[in-house]
Amino acid sequence: MIDSGALDFRLLNDFQRDFPLCPAPFAELASRLGVGEARVLQGLEALRREGKVARVGAVFAPKRIGASTLAALAVPPEQLAAVAEAVNRFPEVNHNYEREHRYNLWFVVTAGSEGRLQAALGAIEQLAGQPLLRLPMLQEYHIDLGFALGGNSGATDRSVPPRQPLVPPQALDERERRLVSALQEGLPLFIRPFSVLASRIGCDEGEVLERIRRWCAEGIIKRFGVIVRHHELGYTANAMLVHDVPDGEVDEVGERLARAEGVNLCYRRPRVLPHWPYNLFCMIHGQARSEVTATIAGLRQRLGLANYAHEILFSLTRFKQSGARYA
Fold it and tell me: Which residues form the Siroheme decarboxylase AsnC-like ligand binding domain (predicted)?
């Protein structure tokens, strides 16, 4: 019989992706784990209450539905808490962090359309009383916010899917928009969760499952499974590593970074001269600042990045972390 600690680890570690898309997914998880379905549901609910699980459900690929951007503000330190609180009130803002830099407030803004995104950015800019750095993603090299809780050496390369050009967001019909809205909240922790979603949006369970499977196959859903909160799992140090790479080299360098273990996110964003000269971004998470610093030093040496100007922006305060809101 699996004990509660081992069960929690398996729930958190093993099912961040490849979640069973079937009418009774928690029964399927229980079968794989050798426990009763009630223990799986109770375990996930307890982990959610503890803050270790944000939700069970979909991570949508950036800009495949709706619109999104990274943005930053240079806020006087004495005003930072108040400005961060005001920014958090926008439902379009789903991540908001203080980072070590003159641009000290960094947040992600997501909306159902480009028009709504720009309206939210304009309102935030007006509230802050200063221009935003607007840094939409231009090219994805690697995005995977899963966390292997067993750890890894950080010194080996991994395979990543071939680089794909960004494509225009997919238009959704009304039923699909309702499904996206329902999925934003995560799966209900019930025996037949997809049936519950189907009743909420006015269709049958089979149609919900078919649409989710299709979105996964098309890459609109990046990952479907247990969405963990890295800070609560001990990954309390994270840094945004940025480089200034010549445009003719950035794809090759980005793909090398994307293959490096320890890199959770890697993408190209525009420079905003003269304020922001960097075009290649990646995120490194760890359990201690020294670990992240060592990982970055190793990456830069091993991948031959020493000739590129760079900065390391450690996060200091997490003001907001939630799922993206597309509807």
Answer: 67-141, 233-320
Considering the domain 67-161+231-321 in this protein, what is its CATH number? 3.30.70.3460
Among 115, 150, 148, smallest CA distance to 15 is for: 148
Sign, Cα dihedral of 220, 59, 263, 150: negative
Summarised one tens digit per residue, pLDDT across range 255-274 is: 999 999 889 899 999 999 99
Q: How far apart are alpha carbons 200 and 180 in whole angstroms?
A: 12
Kindly state the tokens that stand for 38.
């009630």
Using CA atoms, how far apart are residues 53 and 10, in angstroms rounded to an integer? Answer: 13
Asked whether 260 and 119 are in contact (CB, 8 A), the reply is: no
List Cβ neighbours of 161 (8 Å cut-off, separation of 6 or more).
Answer: none
What is the CA 78 to chain-centroid distance, rounded? 29
3-class DSSP assignment, residue 128: helix
CA distances from 188 to 40, 110, 140, 273 (A): 13, 23, 31, 46
Sheet (strand 67-73) strand order: 133-135, 67-73, 105-111, 93-99, 310-321, 237-243, 280-286, 263-268, 139-143
CA 206-209-211 angle, to 5 degrees, is 105
Q: Rounded to whole angstroms, how far apart are CA atoms 188 and 163?
A: 34
Question: Which of 312, 280, 278 is closest to 296 using CA atoms?
Answer: 312
pTM: 0.86
User: How distant, in Å, are the alpha carbons of 41, 93, 110, 118, 127 from that of 115?
Assistant: 40, 15, 11, 5, 18
Helices 193-201 + 205-218 axis angle, to 10: 100
Say which residue, 20 or 174, is predicted with more confidence.
20
Residues 6 or more apart in contact with residue 171 via CB below 8 angstroms: none
Segment 209-222 shows an average pLDDT of: 93
